[in-house]
Write a structure and sequence with these properties.
The protein is an alpha+beta fold. Among the domains are: 252 residues, Catalase HpII,  Chain A, domain 1 (Beta Barrel), CATH 2.40.180.10; 58 residues, no CATH class. Helix content is 29%, strand content 15%. The protein is built from 13 helices and 10 strands. Strands 1, 2, 3, 4, 5, 6, 7, 8, 9 and 10 form a 10-stranded antiparallel sheet that branches. The longest helix has 17 residues. It holds the Pfam family Catalase. It comes from Massilia hydrophila. It catalyses: 2 H2O2 = O2 + 2 H2O.
Amino acid sequence: MHPARHTTASGIPVADDQNSLSAGPRGPLLLQDFHLIEKLQHFNRERIPERVVHAKGSGAYGTFTVTHDLRAYTRARLFSGIGKQTPVFLRFSTVGGEKGSADTERDPRGFALRFYTEEGNWDLVGNNTPVFFIKDPIKFPDFIHTQKRDPQSNLKSANMMFDFWSHAPESLHQVTILFSSRGTPDGYRHMDGFGSHTYSLVNEAGERVYVKWHFKTRQGIRNLSAAEAVRLAGTDPDHAGRDLFEAIGRGAFPQWDVKVQVATSAQLAEWEARTGWNPFDLTKVWPHGDFPLLPVGVLELNRNPDNYHAEVEQAAFSPANVVPGLGYSPDKMLQGRLFAYHDAQLYRVGANHQQLPVNAPRCPFHNGQRDGAMAFTNGGAARNYATVDAGRSGAFGMGHGEPGLALDGEAGRHDPRGTDDDTTQAGNLFRLMAAGERQILCDNLAAALAGVDEDILQRQLRQFDRADPGYGHGVRVALAERGRHAG
């Protein structure tokens, strides 16, 4: 079978794609060779800016199937009946590395999931960890800069990383996860996913509950040792992406059990009074003993993209994308991401990125957005404005049916550091680990801390001590075995 006739981007047949148009066999090239110029111009523009975080990733399409009734908590139509299916797209990623970095680096993994519902797109943008390093978005640029490259040497710097973490007591919980075996998962299929933030659900009666989303892998948790992760970084840096693509290609469709924790405002208030933990703090978990997991459905990935750039690289997620029956929470990090994610896509992909097939909703939509670069449909003949319809819009509370959120307190910059309990949950996690896992954690931390400045090392060790004396002791012993005696 012969390939299709080669054309320019405008569909004009190309007579010769092997030789440039020149003045004689050896003469200079001619400006009128539009095919040559179009090829070079497009080549120069083939890269859109990579994501500042989550730059390298892999994605796939699939389905979400409801297995348990959630209608007592939400009126979102995608949960309207057992057996109901919704098409999805899921992008996995590493967080700190560049687009060409290794899949096996010690790093959290992104777990960004889009549901193409009949009421619009719902984007649940999380990680493979239930918590994060910081609790206030004003520190996010600073934190990410420490995970990138030193501005002088252009090298990754453990000094930068631990200087930040040792000054940020709220980071200890996530640091403990990162340097455990879970910091180097064996591909994307063998890890859990989390919405991480606290979100909300709203039912037909307008009643709100708060929710945490969990995705439990049916393939089983599987992690890489530090040595194996380093080996694969050199021999197969695309290990996770290859594993996902090939598994789906051979019909071994990965699946996750979708579960939720739910709580009313009153339940969370009682829990906070008892524990001292802010339920909307992204550095904290809701213990399963207090808020048990409830089954919701099954997520399956069953189709690879046809084109990586069009469908994975240009996929543009935002946690601001929620549908009626779903909502936000006072989580400060979530509030920051509601702005930052969409703004990043406006810069990276363009003002009309939502018109790209991977981003476009699969239900009818109408808005007044027009013009700009790559305005593919541009609304056709429909009007580009909405008239004022005072008092008759039917929208109350916060917009699409979510009830209003009562606010209280003085507007100001409130610093909880020094008063919040940022060590107990990290200590609880350490105490839950088996002896072998504790040893792996301490060895991994010692490897990373062995070369940092003394003041940074001592400050970080004091954080481990506050979480659990055995935690600090274990890291000191592992450091001593590496020739770094920390007192």
